[in-house]
Amino acid sequence: MEQKNIPSFWLSTFDEVVKFLKKNVRKGHLEVIGTSAGGRPIYAVEYGLPRQGKGTTTFSGSLGFGDVRAYRGPDHKKIVYLGMAGVHGAEFEGIVGMVNLISVIETGKDLRGKEWSEISAVAAQLDRLILIPIVNPDGRIRVPLRMEEYRGTDHTVAEYLNTGGKPDGTITGWPQVKEFIPFDFTSGNFPGGYPNDAGINIQHDDFFGKRQPETQALFNLTERERPDLILNMHTGATYMIIHRPFIEPALNPALEQLFRCVQTGLALHGLQNTNDPKIEGDPGRAPLSVFNLDGALNLHCGALSVVVESPCHGYSMKNSNGDAAMHTPEMLLDAQLICHQEAMKFLVETGGRSGWTPGRKP
After folding, report:
1. What is the dihedral of CA 333, 351, 30, 83, to 10 degrees?
2. Biggest CA pair distance of the chain
């Protein structure tokens, strides 16, 4: 089940990631932002200076007033980027990407030794950068593999590890895995990597009720940091793609511009179905998300929070021609880093939330 000859840059397990962070984070600050339902630490790496001071009202109040600066505070023009991965424990690609992004920020190179001068340059223009490699350590530890074996177009093992199943091998599957939250650990079924140790899929927590500690950690962090942009890295696409979140309508123009920037960058590097930016960068391609963690984060702190779905290293989906869309581990890592690079460039060039929704006119 485990891939042989795992590349040295592929750090995906909880223990590997924590060891890497403690050994290699020097320019940034390593913080435990919360504790999972299973009692495990949730680590974030922070670069730059946080916002100073507070606004005069709630986020909702600022929308009613017509000026989000009243919530964001006196340094509302600061641009803050937040990247997170591992909300679902069997989705490894975003975790690997986040670890390698931290390596680039720290050293200028990913763990292959490849330089990313554009990432280094654009990251230096951000006022604040926060990266969370594993949001759901419970789910990640439940799937004790570093890397799955590649199985062509056969997705059964990957889906079993992710969504769970019965002892006879019957897969729960997607979206059926979302029908019963919390997961019943007394059922004798395998829960997969989706839920935490309380059985909750954090992506679909009870956001207005009793929130899970992982969700509360994100809420506390985003209330403090008031990020402009959040990338929530997941796995489950033929080619990497940004989903259209359930958010304030006022942020849709920014979302569409972000989509164009990221998907165009991926296309130009041969990481989409075609190399045509007009086709791949069309925001009309963005799948529409239901209300979930990203919508909740938007309504909590005003950030543009998006799911980014990656292809899986364990199998290939078929493209529009009916061919297997094969992505090597190196291609998957390139896609992760290009996505972050283009998203950061978008944020710097557009000025963040204060630029997307200008305040009231005098």
Report:
1. -40
2. 67
In tens, the pLDDT along 152-169 reads 999 999 999 999 999 999
Contact 206, 58 (CB under 8 A): no
Three-state DSSP at 318 gives strand
Radius of gyration of the chain (CA): 19
- Phi, psi dihedral angles at 115 (to 5 degrees): -80, 145
Q: SS3 of 276, please?
A: coil
Please tell me whether the peptide bond between 182 and the residue prior to it is cis, using omega within 30 degrees of 0.
yes
Q: For residue 81, give the 3-state DSSP assignment.
A: strand
Please list the alpha-helical segments (H only) found in 39-127: 59-65, 69-72, 93-107, 117-123
Does domain 24-356 fall under CATH 3.40.630.10? My reply is: yes
Report domain extents, the chain: 24-356
Which residues in 69-117 belong to E strands, given as ranges? 80-85
Res 358: pLDDT: 83
Whether the Cβ atoms of residue 42 and residue 134 lie closer than 8 Å to each other = yes
Q: What is the pTM of this model?
A: 0.97
* CA neighbor of 160 nearest in space, from 289, 314, 41: 314
Structure-token pair, residue 255:
């979302």
Phi, psi for residue 190 in degrees, rounded to 5: -85, 125
Residue with tokens 């919360």: 34
Residue 51's identity, in one-letter code, is R
